[in-house]
Structures are given as C-alpha cells and as structure tokens.
Amino acid sequence: MTAYLLNLAQLAAIFGLLSVSLNILIGYGGIFSVAHAVFFGLGAYAGAHVALDLFPDLLLAALASAVIAGVLSAALALPALRVRGEYFVIASLGLQMLATTVFTEAQAITGGLGGLVGIPPPTLFGFTLAGPLVFLFCCLAFLALALALVRQLMRGSFGRALMALRDSETAAEALGKNVALIKTLAVVLGTAFAGIAGALFAFQEEFVNVESFTLDQSVLILAMVIIGGAGTLSGPLIGTLLLLLLPAALTFIPFIPPTDIGAVQQLIYGLAMTLLMIFRPAGLAGRAMGRR
Amino acid sequence: MSALLSARGLTRHFGGINAVEAVDLDLAPGIITALVGPNGAGKTTLFNLITGHLAADAGVVELFGQRITGHAPHRIARMGLARSFQDLRLFARMSVRDNVLAATEPVSWFWQPGGARAARERAARGAQALERTGLAPLARAEAADLAYAERKFLSLARILASGARIWLLDEPASGLDPASRARFTTLLRAAVADGVTICLIEHNLDIVIELADRIVFLDQGRKLAEGPPESILGDPRLAAIYFGERA
C-alpha cells in the first residue's frame, strides 16, 4: 500500500511539473498547445538514453532532456507561432500526430512500440537514489524549482509582457513588445520543463514507450491546467491532483466493478468538465463567475 | 520646423477598395493634428500603415528622419511612436498597474536592463502616468473591471508611461461624459506642453475645435484638404461630405 501511494505521489509530482509547464504557454501566454506530450516524450527518450548509454545521473538526464525539448520546440515553434489562436491549436495537433508516428517508427531511437526498457535507478553525484521516497523528494524538488521560477518570472517584466500579448497581441506590439520572441521564449521554457518531467518519468517507470506520449496524454495535461485554473500558480497543481487521484479513488469504491471503472471515470470527467465550464470557466483556482 | 513624422504617397488597397490612396501626412512637433472624415475615409487604416500593423502597397514613412517603412510594429513603437485603438485593447486580465508597467518595459527578454535603479525609475514613471490620468486609486483593479471612461484613460496612461514622443490616438474621446471629456482635454494639453506631438482621429467636432491646431480631411482614402481648423471646418464642400450630403 505504501509503495502504491509513493508511486502515486511521484506521478503527481511529475504530472504537476508537466501541467505547471503547460500553464506557462496556455495560462500566461494564451498559446493553446495540444502537443505537450510530444516534449514530455522527447524528454523521456533523451533521459532514458542518457541513463542507458552514458550515466544514470538525474541532473545530467534532466539537463539533456530540457535542452533537447527546448531546442526542438524552438525550431518547431518559430514557424508555427506565426499563426494565431485556433490555427496554432491545429498546427500543434498536427505536430502531436506527426510525433506519435515518429516515436512509433523511429525504432533505433525510441524502441518503437516495445519502447526502451531496463532504465537503471537514477544517481546523483555518484550516489544511487535508492528507494521511492528519495526519488519522490527529487521530483518534488524539480516541481518546487519550476513553481518558484514561474512565480518569479510572472511577477516580473517577462510575465507582464507574456500576459499582455495573451490579452492583446496588437496592443502589446504597439507598446514595443517583440511578440514572436516572447512567445518563443515562453514555449522554450515551458517545453524544457516538460522535458525534465519526461526524464523523471523515464526513471520512475524504468521504461518508456510511445503510449505515454499520445494525444490522449496531451489532452489530459491540458485538462489538468484548465480544470485547475489556467494562469494561476496553484491551479495546475489542483487540476493534476484531481485528475490523478480520481481514478485512484474510484478503485477503492467497492460497488464499482473493476471492469467498469474506466467508463465511470469518463462519465465523471465529462460531467465535471461540463459543469466547470458552465459555472467556473476560469477553473477551480481561477476567478469565480459574477465578479466581473 | 521639420516634421517628426512624415508619410509620402501611402497607399493600401483591399481588393478593389482603395482604403488609402497616395496620402501625404506631416506631423509637426508639439502640435495636435486631427484626422477628420466620414466613416470609411481610411483614417484608422492610415494609422495602421504608419505604425506597421498593416503593410503599405506603396509609399514611405519617416520617423525622426529615419525611414521606417516595412519595420515591425514593435520596432516602430520603440522609436517613440505610440498608438491607441478604437476598441482600446487593454490587457484585460492584468491589473491597471501592470498594464502601465508593461508599457515602461522596453526589452522583450526574461529581464530588463539597468537593474534595480532602472526598475525604480520605470515604476515611478508608471505611477506618474496613473496619477496624471486619475487612475492611481484603481491601480490594483483588474482592467476588465474598470468603467468605460476609466478604460479609455488606462489606454492613455499606457501611452503616457511608454514615454513616446508621438501619440496616434484613435477616437480617444468617443463615449466620454462631459466631466471625463474635460479630464481628457486637460491631459492632452499637458502632454503637448511636455513636448508630445499628437495626431488624433475624432468624430466629435467640438473636441476637434477645442484641441486641434491642424486638421487633415480624408474621404474615401484620399486626402482632400489640410489646414487650420477654421478653414477646414468652415468649408461647405467638406461639411457636405462629412455629413453625408454628397452631390
């Protein structure tokens, strides 16, 4: 039981990091991406290769994953960010579909559907991070670092510029903001943290394959941000806890047969999202309706 | 005195519509120029061409003696040309203070140059802009929560805080009550006294008469006349066009 809860807590910290990173794009930048799982996957594969082919050093793997996800996102984002709003959503959807195919087919790098197996336990400065509790603290440390950085940046001039272009790109430009540069920086920052989450995920699961980086995963991360409250610091964490703990909690309800848990979960998700969008569209941590 | 901003032969067509056709415009320093004309005359399009929000089909724009044709809007803004929009385009989910602070921060990077001292100077400039527009008591309010007149003043506060030397204002006084209008004219006169050059689009001729030193009259994308207010507004031909009484 303790091992199960620790595993759940590790996943919550990793997905918390993912949703906090997507919140930089969606909540603060108004850049709606449904391809965040792509950068999560790139980070996971990069981290797995560092661990398998070099050393399983957590910081090295996290750094490599952040750099690969961040640099590739910049290359992909620069042309895509020229389009606005719903067109970017479609462009990111295309990227997600493309990446899923590449992850499946590029067997030499990703292991294809079989994935990369046997990822060794992580080390830090030569010491093996033995035990799930130690690894949980490492995940929480990365999450805390991301939260502190996002809080600091969003209270400063970069945050103001990013939120300004979210609210009106043309007005931001008219006040001297380089919209393309600000968007690119936000995308690189957000996807670099998604890459780190991927590296942590690779160590946590000891195995990675394409099934963790599909459109379903991107939509789940998006739902975490929106349900919790996009553009707030705590919202993505609330959304993550809710969407990760709900399926876990359902397994403890005795009168739901295990085979029906998936269907019940979908019903609850659907109902919750519909009610939330009607009564609290800014998310659980966002502004309540009626104040405006 | 030579113009701070000079446009020559600016032209923009949308399909078969000549939105702006070979328009020349000079903004002389320290005065208020009003762009006047009926709806669809091309006034806002002219602003968009000058600020780089629209690419011109032909023509040249010079700002402070430098050619800015084809430059991105943010580059033109950083040279000291600020504009407002008819629909205001406030940063609605940000506080009033942050709307203004964003206008004082010139660099689109993770941090601004100059350290704490420059940050204090920017904060002081923002606070002064809020004081001058009467928005200081609302500094912590979210822009979306402001009343209509206060939203108008916030769009002016952003421009004021930006430190721009040339302001292009698109219908800045429309919908203002008389008291707010008086605040508005006082604010503009104070800005001009500080050396700001203003070009405004305005349909309210009382405000044009009260504020403008010079009028440029546009119709169907063409400049029909330019001169002091009394000569333009006293021209019966232009009055007929303005009020839709074409022959």
TrEMBL record, chain A:
* Cellular component, GO, one term: plasma membrane
Q: Kindly list the residue ranges recorded as spanning the membrane.
A: 6-26, 58-80, 87-104, 124-150, 185-203, 215-233, 240-257, 263-282
Topology versus the membrane, per the UniProt entry? Multi-pass membrane protein
Sorted alphabetically, which InterPro entries does this protein's record hold?
ABC_transp_permease, LivM-like
Which keywords does the record carry? Cell membrane, Membrane, Transmembrane, Transmembrane helix
Localization per record: Cell membrane
Could you give a GO molecular-function term held by this entry? Answer: branched-chain amino acid transmembrane transporter activity
Pfam families membership: BPD_transp_2 (PF02653)
In Swiss-Prot or TrEMBL terms, this protein is called Branched-chain amino acid ABC transporter permease
Automatic annotation (TrEMBL), chain B:
* Keyword Nucleotide-binding (UniProt): yes
Q: Where is the ABC transporter domain?
A: 5-245
Q: Which InterPro entries match?
A: AAA+_ATPase, ABC_AA/LPS_Transport, ABC_transporter-like_ATP-bd, P-loop_NTPase
GO cellular component annotations of the record:
plasma membrane
Question: Which Gene3D superfamilies does this chain map to?
Answer: P-loop containing nucleotide triphosphate hydrolases
**Sorted alphabetically, which SMART domains does this protein's record hold?**
AAA
GO MF terms here are: ATP binding; ATP hydrolysis activity; L-isoleucine transmembrane transporter activity; L-phenylalanine transmembrane transporter activity; L-valine transmembrane transporter activity
The yes or no answer to whether the keyword Ribosomal protein is present is: no
A biological process (GO) annotation for this entry? L-isoleucine import across plasma membrane
Task: Recite the UniProt keywords alphabetically.
Answer: ATP-binding, Nucleotide-binding, Transport
Q: Which PANTHER family match?
A: AMINO ACID ABC TRANSPORTER ATP-BINDING PROTEIN, CONSERVED COMPONENT OF ABC TRANSPORTER FOR NATURAL AMINO ACIDS-RELATED
This protein is called ABC transporter ATP-binding protein
The organism is: Acidicaldus sp
